[in-house]
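UDP-N-acetylmuramoylalanine--D-glutamate ligase
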Amino acid sequence: MIHKQKIAILGAGESGAGTAILAKKEGFEVFVSDFGKIKEKYKSVLEELKVEWEEGGHTESKLLDADIIMKSPGIPDSATIVKKLVSQGIPVVSEIEFASKYTDAKIIAITGSNGKTTTTKWIHHILKNARISAGIAGNVGDSFAKQVAEEKFDWYVLELSSFQLDGIVDFKPHIAVLTNITPDHLDRYNYNLDEYVASKFRITKNQTEEDFFIYDADDNIITEWLNTHSVRAQKLPFSLQKKLEKGAYLEDNNIKINTLNTQFIMPTSSIALEGKHNTKNAMAASTVANLLKIRKETIRASMEGFQAVEHRLEKVLKINNVLYINDSKATNINATYYALDSMESETIWIVGGVDKGNNYSELLPLVNEKVKAIICLGVDNSRIFEAFGNCVDIMVETQFMEEAIKIAYKLGEKGNVVLLSPACASFDLFENYEDRGRQFKDAVRNL
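Tokens:
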């Protein structure tokens, strides 16, 4: 009798449930284990699959009996059970690694500290408009593994975090995009920036000379790494600051893209989303489109017609001539820098949450120039007070979104902007950044 390969899945969220679907289809004996409580919608998936599962702890003997482990990205490598499995020589991989073995589709993979969701959705939007068969997965949409099991796409556009990239072995995207690198999630990387950078560059690990690597040439961390490491893929940089022979650059308010002996030119005025960071996201997305030889008219129409990602500089409402903007997805300093940089009116800034070791000094020039009041929304706001106490006349703190919006409403004057751009994670007061953004929008609509 042929031994059925055994897979143990750590974590029963979107990636865990999706991996269970694909593993069952591919003939694996599946065991799912979650240290916490499994959401009802994923429980019903596991019940329907008739796979064995547990919650509220791990049965070590069953995990050690597996031939392969799929670890959900939220579980750190430092977790005791993960270290034990690795020490026993059991391969521990990510959903992305596992699922990629069961599809022939070509992959466009996007990573970066900021801008990856917008760039991923923008690329998928262009592909859809060009009638190219493409799925969207990773940190967005349905699980990659689930789609590999149930769909038949020619291409996948994957948004990948450093945590997902940490679990790859053979995964190879045909086109890799690195939007930028700024210090983020350093608590998962021993507070060592070099480890985090190396994690991001794993996206290029298995690429060959036939593949492509698109990256921000204005990003010092990226360019320094490339000066001392080799990437086999063909490099296509993008830049707002310098003219490039290959890749994308800005000249006379036009984006110019040169790839594979074809050129594409588009005025920045026709880009749907505002801000320098979105010009860069547009450069990355249209470089991908140009590589795929998508018609120039389709690329232009897709650049003009793209809708902003929810919780990323999302204009909610204008009340008494005060505009309320939801940028809850800004969970680090760099994302908030871009948000403040794109403000053209006096701003009431809502900031705070779980600080990841932020260096707020980078924001000082923008706060001095643009911010008239700061509302701290977090359990511990001491570092924000310390950083900006001398910059603005009005600083208040609260632990309730509704109260934050009422304060902002009182402070707001004609032409002002109220900007939620926290520069911090959300877990002290909210379920996640989406919950924080939705509460912001609800509170604004209830004014």
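The mean pLDDT is 92.
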